[in-house]
Amino acid sequence: MVTAPQHASSIRPDSIPVIGSRIKGSNVVDPAGPLFDVYDPATGVITKRVSLASSDTVEQAVEVATSAWRSGWRDSSQKQRFSLVQRLHELVMERRDDLVNLIVFEHGKSLADARGEFDRAVDGLDSTLAFPVALQGAFSGQVARGIDIHSMPYSLGVVTTITPFNFPLMIPLWGAAAALVCGNTVIHKPSPRVPSAANLLAELIEEAGAPAGIYNVIQGDAIAVNALLDHPGVAAVAFVGSTPVAKHVYQRGTQAGKRVQALGSAKNHAVVMPDCDIAFTADSLIAGAYGSSGQRCMAVTLAVAVGPVADVLRAALVERIPALKTGRGFDEGVDLGPVVSKESQERIVDLVTQGESQGAEVIIDGRVLAAESEGFFVGPTLIDYVRPGQACYDNEIFGPVLGIVRVETLGEAIALIDSNPYGNGAAIFTSNGETARIFEREVAVGMIGVNVPVPVPVNSFTTGGWKGSAFGAHGLLGPEMYRFFTRTKMVTTRWPESGAPSMSMAFNPET
Ligand code: NAD
Q: Which domains does the chain have, with CATH numbers?
């Protein structure tokens, strides 16, 4: 049984802190506005409340960010931006424990998972130190006599990043660093379920020397998001979250004339071939399915067993899963923390129950822990005979549930993946290079692992899915992120002494 940690049980209901938005370095709480409860998912105790921003507060943030862009940040030197990222790196490293603890306390993930998130967050920050090269333009001299052309990436203005609960530091930091080095000013809208890392990150950006108002945080929900989407002063929206909201954000934002990228949900299949190394595959699937209690967009949720490997795989998983330790994220040795909320816990349990009534076999049942614990726990769950048409196949579960799907051939496995509405990640476990090559060339998803369960690319590449997992053309990292956060100016130059102007649109071929 999981019990309340000391730091949560000592908070009395009348002393629950209220977290506000952070605009130009100030905490902004709307005294009359609605409050959103933040829980310690390990105990189910309310620890904080978020003051949800009104559209007036959003207006204030857009004014501040617009003025900060116009009055300086768009013209900031590369050296100033470079120094900001370097200093931010130092401060983030100094506050590592605080950031990691905030993630564990509000999200619930294990210390090991939170440290992993921290490391990937810093990787993304560091990769932006390459921006002077990434943002170079092109130059063509003497395209006609006396005429040169150069292009230069230019900032967009005020951009907004809207982020999900499951990476409260990593995704906000990636977005912040990329948007700022491109010369934009930023309004970040985190998930109100995990509000604190966002505000601490904003403080660190300010402390690192950011001019006032270039980075702001709006704590809010749909009202704030819609106000940002409709506001003519916001040039671009980078969203990460669930597909229904991603679709809404994409449609409403583009209708308002903004540049929008919106990354959404996933249902990631791992194909298991009969020639795989079964111990390695079972260990990989367990890491990919149950890490962060399955609350990753790249979690492996379905093992597609080809032919006779299904029974062997099932036995290897059944042997290993009972060794996983579920408990408070702060406790050393814990593999799975709680899921983020009561609603998540109930949704996960319900999808497993529906799947069971539709013909799936629950082999290891994490619903038992859900029924027993005070916090929002679900134990690692394994289901066999999962197939399309069952609720546990058709929906993103976003919890510690791995399903085995049985098929006869690789072609059948690929067809299954391709007919799924999502296309975020997929993996194959095999010892045959040709099989792997066929898979990686044919399968219609954005991120593919060969004997790698969670194939999130390193930061010099990009991340982002296909089909219903992403709307808009750009990915979350690397060169595509720089393109998203800039627009290109092309400058054609002629100096008066270098030739007479022509009436024609074309450059004079004689010259
Ligand atoms: P969510 O869609 O509920 O929330 C995402 C953001 O949108 C939050 O800031 C939230 O406050 C806001 N929001 C929620 N409802 C809204 C509404 N009706 N109108 C406007 N804004 C709204 O997602 P979540 O539960 O926080 O995160 C989990 C989801 O994110 C999963 O589906 C997961 O697959 C996805 N995700 C995707 C990626 C990716 O790279 N594709 C990465 C991480 C998470």
A: 8-264+469-489 (3.40.605.10), 268-450 (3.40.309.10)
